[in-house]
From TrEMBL:
Its main location: cytoplasm. This is Evolutionarily conserved signaling intermediate in Toll pathway, mitochondrial. Keywords: Cytoplasm, Immunity, Innate immunity, Mitochondrion, Nucleus, Transit peptide. GO terms for cellular component: mitochondrion; nucleus. It comes from Clunio marinus. Residues 250-377 form the ECSIT C-terminal domain. It is found in: Cytoplasm; Mitochondrion; Nucleus. The keyword Nucleus applies. Belongs to the ECSIT family. It holds the Pfam family ECSIT_C. Coiled coil: none annotated. GO terms for biological process: cell surface receptor protein serine/threonine kinase signaling pathway; innate immune response. Signal peptide: none annotated.
Length: 387
C-alpha cells in the first residue's frame, strides 16, 4: 500500500515537472520569434483592415468617390458588390446607399437600374412558408428595403413591368409585401400616366424658351381663342435687356383691357411658379381690379335674426328674389381681371416694361394711358411705380 502511494506521488511530481518544462520551452520559442514573422503578422493585420475599409466604402461611400458619374459606372458598382461575396452580406445597406446616390448619376428614372438593384437580393431565402410568416412580414428589413425602392420608383414616375414582378416573386413569393406594393402600382400608375390634358415631353426640355412656350400654352388653354406671341426686346427702343418674351392674350382680354377705367391702375404681378414635370419656370400676369358693377352681390338677409322664421310647408319655402348680373368671363376672377400672361428670359423689370410696350403695339392702344404698378413677390412686398 505504501509502495503504491509512493509511485503515485512520483508520477504526479514528474507530470508537473514535464508541464513546467513545456511551458518554459513555449515561452522561449515565443520570445525567440524572428523580426520577419512579426512583420508578416503586421502586414496581415494591415491587409485585413484595408479589406474591411474597402467593404465599408462599397457599402456607403463608394458612389461618392466615382470620378465619372454615369449609368455605366453605376451598374459597374453593382456588379462589384455582387462579385465581392457569394452570400452578398450587407445587401440592404448597399441598396439604400445606391438609392441615395441615384440622382447624382442621373439614373433615378431608369427602369433597368432599379431591376439591377432588385437582382442584388438573394433568391428564395425570404419566401414565407406559412400564413403567419406572410402576414407578419417575414424578414421585415429586406421587405421594407424593397418597398422603399418601389416608393422611389413611384415618386420619380417610373412604371414597372412584368419582368420586375417575376423578380420580386422569386425573392419574396406571391404573398410578400413588396409584391403587393407592385400590384398596387400596376393598378394605379397606368390610370394616371396619360390623364393630364396638357402633354409634356418626358423628359421635359432643358431649354427655358421651350419651357416658357409650354407653360404659356397651358395657362392660356382656358380660352380657345388665346394667341401665343413671341416677342424680342430688341424691337423696343431704349431696352436694356436683350431677351425673348412669350406672351399669351385672347381677343376677349384685349376687349376687357380697352374697357378698363383710366383712373384705375393696372398691376404686373409675379413672379409665380409653374411646374412642368420636374422643371419649373417663372411667369407674370397683367391684372386689373374688378369694376364696381362686376362685384359679387350677396343677400342682405340676417341669418341670425329669429324674429321672422318662415316654416316651409311640404318643402316649399319662401321664394328668393332673383338678381340680374352680367355673366363674368373666364378671365374675370374674384381677385381681379387677368389681361395677359407672359414669361421672359430674364424676369427683370426692364423686360416687363418691354412687354408692356409690345402689348401696346399689338392691339392694346389704351395701355399707354394707364398707370402700371409693379408688384413683385419679395419679402419686403414693395410696389415699384412707373408710367
Amino acid at each position: 500500500m505504501i509502495r503504491c502511494k509512493n509511485c503515485f506521488a512520483s508520477f504526479v511530481t514528474n507530470r508537473l515537472r514535464l508541464q513546467r518544462v513545456f511551458q518554459l520551452r513555449q515561452l522561449c520559442t515565443s520570445n525567440e520569434k524572428s523580426e520577419e514573422q512579426k512583420e508578416s503578422e503586421q502586414i496581415k493585420r494591415e491587409k485585413s483592415h484595408e479589406q474591411f475599409m474597402k467593404q465599408a466604402l462599397i457599402l456607403k461611400g463608394s458612389f461618392e468617390y466615382v470620378a465619372t458619374k454615369d449609368k455605366g459606372n453605376y451598374l459597374e458598382m453593382i456588379k462589384i458588390f455582387e462579385n465581392k461575396d457569394v452570400h452578398r452580406r450587407n445587401h440592404v445597406e448597399f441598396i439604400y446607399a445606391a438609392l441615395k446616390n441615384m440622382e447624382e448619376f442621373n439614373v433615378h428614372k431608369d427602369l433597368q437600374v432599379y431591376k439591377a438593384l432588385i437582382d442584388v437580393m438573394p433568391k428564395g431565402k425570404f419566401i414565407p412558408q406559412n400564413l403567419f410568416q406572410a402576414e407578419f412580414m417575414h424578414y421585415p428589413k429586406q421587405q421594407q428595403c424593397m418597398i422603399d425602392l418601389l416608393e422611389q420608383m413611384e415618386d420619380n414616375g417610373v412604371m414597372p413591368d412584368y419582368e420586375m414582378e417575376d423578380m420580386l416573386v422569386n425573392i419574396f413569393g406571391r404573398r410578400g409585401h413588396p409584391v403587393r406594393k407592385f400590384w398596387r402600382m400596376m393598378y394605379w400608375m397606368p390610370k394616371f400616366k396619360n390623364l393630364s390634358p396638357w402633354v409634356v415631353p418626358n423628359p421635359p426640355p432643358q431649354d427655358a424658351f421651350e419651357l416658357a412656350q409650354l407653360a404659356v400654352e397651358r395657362m392660356c388653354s382656358v380660352d380657345v381663342e388665346s394667341v401665343i406671341n413671341i416677342y424680342n426686346t430688341e424691337d423696343v427702343e431704349d431696352s436694356v435687356d436683350h431677351t425673348w418674351i412669350v406672351s399669351g392674350q385672347s381677343p376677349e382680354q384685349k376687349e376687357l383691357l380697352t374697357r378698363h377705367p383710366i383712373k384705375s391702375a393696372v398691376y404686373i404681378e409675379g413672379p409665380f411658379l409653374i411646374w412642368l414635370r420636374d422643371k419649373s419656370i417663372n411667369y407674370f400676369i397683367l391684372r386689373g381690379d374688378l369694376p364696381s358693377n362686376r362685384q359679387p352681390v350677396y343677400d342682405e338677409d340676417e341669418y341670425d335674426d329669429v324674429s321672422h322664421i318662415d316654416v316651409p310647408l311640404f318643402g316649399f319655402g319662401k321664394p328668393k328674389k332673383n338678381k340680374l348680373i352680367v355673366k363674368p368671363s373666364i378671365h374675370e376672377q374674384s381677385d381681379g381681371i387677368i389681361y395677359a400672361v407672359c414669361c421672359t428670359g430674364m424676369s427683370t423689370k426692364d423686360s416687363l416694361l418691354s412687354w408692356i410696350r409690345l402689348l401696346e403695339k399689338d392691339g392694346n392702344p389704351t395701355i399707354k394711358d394707364l398707370a402700371i404698378l409693379f408688384k413683385f413677390k419679395s419679402p419686403a412686398d414693395k410696389e415699384l411705380v412707373t408710367t
